[in-house]
Amino acid sequence: MAKKGFMYGAIAGGVVGSVAALLLAPKSGRELRRDIADKTQTVSEHTARIAGQVGDKTVQMAKQVGSTASTAAVKVKDTAASVVDNVRGWRADTKETLEETGEQVKDAVEDVKDKGQELIAEHREELHTVNN
């Protein structure tokens, strides 16, 4: 944006300077009008050339931005897919681990129950023996 303002200022300054130089030079009216027409043509050609360059640069930058945006979009899509796959894998692994842990806990509870019943049976015999 600052480059554009500078360019407009440079063009305006060039035009004002050229006109001032022409008006202050000691020439006849016909020579002065011819010089003004020549300088106006020169400034016009220069302005058209600069405008063409700005247009070319703008197109080039637009293509570059578009290309960069497309590349970034592909990278984001790939990364998101990778994250989703990882989360799904973690969920499956976690579910499997929880199921295995649950089975181990059930087995341990059954073992404790069995051992408890064995101990109760042993103590009943001892109590029965002591009471008789």
UniProtKB/TrEMBL annotation:
It comes from the Bacteria. Pfam families: YtxH. The chain crosses the membrane at residues 6-25. Keywords: Membrane, Transmembrane, Transmembrane helix. Gene3D superfamilies: Apolipoprotein. The keyword Transmembrane applies. This is YtxH domain-containing protein.
